[in-house]
Amino acid sequence: xxxxxxxxxxxxxxxxxxxxxxxxxxxxxxxxxxxxxxxxxxxxxxxxxxxxxxxxxxxxxxxxxxxxxxxxxxxxxxxxxxx
Length: 83
Known about the structure:
By secondary structure, the chain is mostly helical. Helices cover 92% and strands 0% of the residues. The longest helix has 63 residues, at 20-82.
């Protein structure tokens, strides 16, 4: 979809009746806008991935702590039962 939008924008610019210098400015501006938009989308993607990684790490840490507590409880019950 992104490629189709880009192709449409390029074709629209190329077939517009403008002078060469105006066309080059328009192409340059379109390119700059496109790059800026892609950069923002990439930053948003990286932020989302970073948030997910943080969430997974937090969940893993919480699960490890809960597991340790349950293991200690089971060990205590076992030691009490064996004595």
